[in-house]
Amino acid sequence: MLAIIGQVIRQLREENGISLEELSARAGISVDKLDKIEKNETNPSLGVLIRISRALGAKLGALLAGKDEDRSAVVTRRKDLAGNLTFAGNEEGYNGHLHFYAMAQDKADRHMEPLVVEIAPSGGAPVPDPRSEHSGEEFVYVLEGEATLYYGEETYRLEAGDSVYYDSVVPHFLANESDRPARVLAVLYTPY
């Protein structure tokens, strides 16, 4: 799946007659970074993917699934999840600690993006600035371990069984300040 995201972005951009420079300006991403994403030389963060999808007038799910509208139900089995790494951020100092597993990547025309996210321990690394911010809403439910949400000026420490629902337009960052890995179920809603 990782190798498809860049190809889908390039395909959607070309189908819509949008130049690399124009998409760069619309999404607020440098031309060099966008070019590397399209060539699959770097894995974008979730926030960057959302900005690209909006600039293309496409749903986030279209970038992750690369398919057109589909009205069928999609079942994701636990046994299939481990091999279903959708993307992992590798931007230096930002989101490299997150690994995203799509729960419904075969459902292309969706309004929500359900993901299981593995959060590596931060090892005392500082919270990056700027944090992620994009239109939409997010729901996070801690499955295992502990997670810390930095949300605007607030900090929420969450344990297994805890959840939080928030507006994604507020700068936010999800961290794991424990010494054990954590897993959360994250459901994102990103309007066009």
Number of E-state strands: 9
Separation, N- and C-terminal Cα atoms: 23 Å
| CATH homologous superfamily label of the largest domain | Jelly Rolls
- How is the biggest beta sheet arranged? 6 strands, antiparallel
Lateral strand order in the biggest sheet:
1-2-3-9-4-7
Elements, N to C (H/E): HHHHHHEEEEEEEEE
Helix content: 25-40%
Question: What's the number of structural domains?
Answer: 2
CATH class of the largest domain: Mainly Beta
User: Within the CATH hierarchy, at the fold level, what is the topology of the largest domain?
Assistant: Jelly Rolls
Low-pLDDT runs: none
Please state the CA-atom Rg, rounded to the nearest Å.
16 Å
Which outline best applies?
A: globular
Q: Into which percentage range does the β-strand content fall?
A: 25-35%
**What CATH architecture of the largest domain would you give?**
Sandwich
Briefly note the structural class of the backbone.
Answer: alpha+beta
Mean pLDDT: 82
Separate helix tally: 6
General description of the model:
By secondary structure, the chain is of the alpha+beta class. The protein has 2 domains: 2-65, 434 Repressor (Amino-terminal Domain), CATH 1.10.260; 78-189, Sandwich (Jelly Rolls). The protein is built from 6 helices and 9 strands. The strands form 2 sheets. A 6-stranded antiparallel sheet has the order 1-2-3-9-4-7. The radius of gyration is 16 Å and the shape is globular. The mean pLDDT is 82.
Question: In summary, what is this structure?
Answer:
27% of the residues lie in helices and 28% in strands. With 192 residues, the protein is an alpha+beta fold. The strands form two sheets. Strands 1-2-3-9-4-7 form a six-stranded antiparallel sheet. A three-stranded antiparallel sheet has the order 6-5-8, with no helix packed on it.
